[in-house]
UniProtKB/TrEMBL annotation:
This is Globin domain-containing protein. PROSITE patterns: GLOBIN. InterPro entries: Globin, Globin-like_sf, Globin/Proto. GO terms for molecular function: FAD binding; heme binding; metal ion binding; nitric oxide dioxygenase NAD(P)H activity; oxygen binding; oxygen carrier activity. Pfam families: Globin (PF00042). Residues 4-140 form the Globin domain. It comes from Sphingobium yanoikuyae (Sphingomonas yanoikuyae). The lineage of its organism: Bacteria, Pseudomonadati, Pseudomonadota, Alphaproteobacteria, Sphingomonadales. GO terms for biological process: cellular response to nitrosative stress; nitric oxide catabolic process. The keyword Phosphoprotein does not apply. Belongs to the globin family. In the C-terminal section; belongs to the flavoprotein pyridine nucleotide cytochrome reductase family. Gene3D superfamilies: Globins.
Amino acid sequence: MSKPLSPETMALVKATAPALQQHGVDITTRMYQRLFVDPEIKALFDMAAHESGAQPKRLAAAILAFAQNVDKLDALKPAIERIAARHVQTHIKPDHYPAVANALLPAIRDVLGEAATDDILNAWGEAYWFLADILINREVELYEGQVA
């Protein structure tokens, strides 16, 4: 398990919630544009849900919920369970997470421009890998057929 997020990181992530509420779908849409340059990763996704806008909206809502609850992760446990189960169902593996980070963080800057300072992007990078670690560990348990 990764180390807990620092209070400074949590504060920066929480401070981005209003921007995510306003621009979250634009960010996730841009993230998927970046991510889908890899045809192997694109093949893992339900393109109908993506093209209808449902997938970018779901991810934007999940990112916003994380930002709003980064200091109270217990509130996110049901969502984390659903996401981990969906990832296992769609064959997401730990080696897919770097590609998402490499698409998401630049997408934040693409959409928010100068408002996405290096400090904010660094905080989101740390927060992303913190959450990714939680998901990866849960997904490993699910892949192994264990019940936590």
